[in-house]
Here is the input.
Amino acid sequence: MVSILIAGILFLSFIVIAFFIPKGWCVKQTAFIHTSVEQMYDFLLCVKNWPKWQSDNEEEIAFLYVGPEKGEGSAQYWEINGVAASLRLIQCEYLRNINYQMRINHGETRLDYKLELLRAENSVTLIWSCEGISNNNPLDRYASLIYGWRVKKEMKKALVKLKEVYHAQEKIKQSA
Here is the structure.
């Protein structure tokens, strides 16, 4: 009887604590890239460049590109292990920021991203943020803590790769 009471109290505590976990979450990462704001903005404005620095899968992913080549409305669609996903640029402010939205599993999960470019001396400070909203379900609230942590970790890895890819492409352009 005592063990049932303790289990009940623990379960109830688990549920109550979940409602104190914020429904919305936001993660940010920052990178300093030695280039001009104009060059970095132009590179990021083309979603066909994104798999070069965001994908860490060893397998080749088939992307479908829809909309304009660059800027607002350009989008890419893909599928990994039966899970469909899409990325669409929704708002671009010239040389300042690029807002985009990612939808996973036919919109079941929606993430709002922002790439903000700040001019610095001979470089760009790139601030990349992601916002998500969890459901009211207590398990989803706990899962959002883990998901936010994973997204931040993936963003950090992608920014390191962005620096490498971008600088490699710039060297190729300069030698041509």
User: Anything to note?
Assistant: The chain has one domain: 21-175.
